[in-house]
TrEMBL record:
GO molecular function annotations of the record: snoRNA binding
Naturally occurring in which organism (per UniProt): Suillus fuscotomentosus
InterPro entries: HAT, TPR-like_helical_dom_sf, Utp6, UTP6_N
Compartments it resides in: Nucleus, Nucleolus
Listed GO biological process terms: maturation of SSU-rRNA from tricistronic rRNA transcript (SSU-rRNA, 5.8S rRNA, LSU-rRNA)
Family in the record: Belongs to the UTP6 family.
Pfam families linked to this entry: U3_assoc_6 (PF08640)
Keyword Transmembrane: no
A GO term from the CC aspect: small-subunit processome
Gene3D superfamilies (alphabetical): Tetratricopeptide repeat domain (1.25.40.10)
Protein name: U3 small nucleolar RNA-associated protein 6-domain-containing protein
Upper classification of the organism: Eukaryota, Fungi, Dikarya, Basidiomycota, Agaricomycotina
Residue ranges of every copy of the U3 small nucleolar RNA-associated protein 6 N-terminal domain listed in the record: 9-91
Record has Repeat as a keyword: yes
């Protein structure tokens, strides 16, 4: 109980200050002391539970929110900060520190602590927490992503890049980390563009204003394109143009494909690039590069064939809010559907080593569109006829014939 008494003594100054500021009355202070004593008693048991720490921290968070609301409502005059202005937040941090001494292996607890520190604007503390967490859990991608995001939000792209590169050396099979790395480089391109605009450096070759000297620690993580872009003359102009064209992002995509040749990786990167608010020219160039890398990396993979074949269809349907929207009157849509079907037909008819898997993916494609109520009947008939042609080929996978029969059953019943 000596630990409990010690904690009670530590809170006297802050509680006195709260009463002097008329933020809490004596009765409320007694309730606070009583509640804290209960929490502290639970923490000094022989085997404390993580839930006890979290409930204690949640209580202090609610107490701090109440204090802030009362400060705002009472419109107190601004004075020099006193102990009650930061004591409740500091106590939250202390509770998490005590919890982590008992539960160092709990990654979720580390993440909760980081989130609390970020919410309170404790930038330096967030950096220290993430560093400690990564020392204990170097193979947890989420911690690298959180740490890099924190650095990027505080205008430290070089530090963010260094963190992600370090994480990828240990977690090269993490799709989330590769996606965040590409996202960071996309953000960096937009940031560099704004910076060069302010400095008078333009893509079109306008007069160049010399940029400030890059810090030595930043130079260690800069790419060759970035270093060259900081220079003047033709070399700097070419490097800046390369960055604007996505040279760095393309390099990361290629590295990701070599480290993790997975269709799930390409799907995640495609969704990211399509949704990221970048210039249309850059987005198109990056998607073209992604598809070229996919073609070289996953040759003959059924899902890669599908992704490449249906690229234009995804571009058209993503322009609408409804997933089942079909531009029945659009020649562009008809051409895209026909091109996708022809690509599939060639892949299935080529007799690849994974003929069964290729056939299953094609069947899935045909059924997806044929079952769409808004699809033009002529287009449906075209897809069914294409499926029948492939199903009648020698050594055709059974799934083709089964799908054809299934799709033509309604018409036979009607007869």
């Amino acid at each position: 109980m000596e630990r409990v008494q010690f904690q009670q003594e530590q809170m006297l100054a802050e509680l006195k200050d709260l009463v002097q500021k008329s933020l809490f009355n004596q009765s409320e202070v007694k309730q606070i002391v009583k509640k804290r004593t209960q929490f502290e008693t639970a923490l000094v048991r022989r085997i404390p539970k993580k839930g006890d720490f979290l409930r204690y921290a949640a209580y202090e968070m609610n107490l701090e929110q109440l204090r802030r609301k009362r400060v705002e409502r009472l419109k107190l005059e601004k004075t020099a900060p006193s102990i009650s202005d930061y004591a409740l937040v500091r106590r939250q941090f202390q509770i998490f520190e005590r919890a982590l001494k008992k539960f160092k292996s709990d990654v979720g607890l580390w993440i909760q602590y980081i989130q609390v520190a970020k919410r309170e604007g404790a930038r330096s503390l967030v950096g220290r927490i993430t560093a400690r967490a990564l020392q204990l859990h170097p193979r947890t991608p989420a911690l690298y992503i959180i740490a890099a995001s924190h650095e990027l939000n505080h205008m430290s792209p070089s530090a963010a890049r260094a963190l992600l590169q370090r994480g990828l050396r240990l977690n090269a099979d993490s799709i989330d980390m590769w996606r965040e790395y590409v996202r960071m480089e996309l953000s960096f391109v937009e940031g560099m563009k704004r910076r060069w605009t302010v400095l008078g450096i333009h893509e079109e070759g306008h007069p160049i204003v010399e940029a400030e000297t890059t810090a030595a620690e930043d130079m260690a993580t800069l790419t060759p394109e970035e270093i060259a872009a900081e220079k003047g003359g033709d070399e700097g102009e070419r490097a800046r143009q390369a960055i604007m064209d996505g040279a760095i992002v393309k390099s990361v995509i290629l590295s990701a494909a070599k480290a993790l040749p997975s269709i799930n990786l390409f799907t995640a990167l495609e969704v990211l690039i399509r949704s990221y608010p970048s210039q249309e020219r850059l987005r198109t160039a990056l998607l073209d590069h992604l598809y070229n890398v996919l073609k070289d990396t996953l040759q003959g993979d059924p899902h890669a064939v599908k992704m490449l074949a249906t690229r234009k269809l995804r571009e058209l349907t993503s322009q609408e809010n409804s997933d089942d929207f079909v531009m029945a009157e659009s020649e562009e849509f008809v051409d895209a559907l026909q091109a996708a079907n022809e690509s599939f037909s060639l892949a299935v008819g080529a007799g690849s080593t994974n003929a069964s898997g290729m056939a299953d993916v094609y069947v899935e494609f045909v059924e997806q569109w044929c079952k769409l109520p808004t699809l033009d009947p002529n287009l449906r008939a075209y897809l069914v006829a294409s499926l029948r042609k492939l199903a009648r080929q020698p050594n055709a996978p059974p799934s083709l014939q089964a799908a054809y029969v299934q799709l033509t059953l309604p018409s036979k019943k009607a007869l």
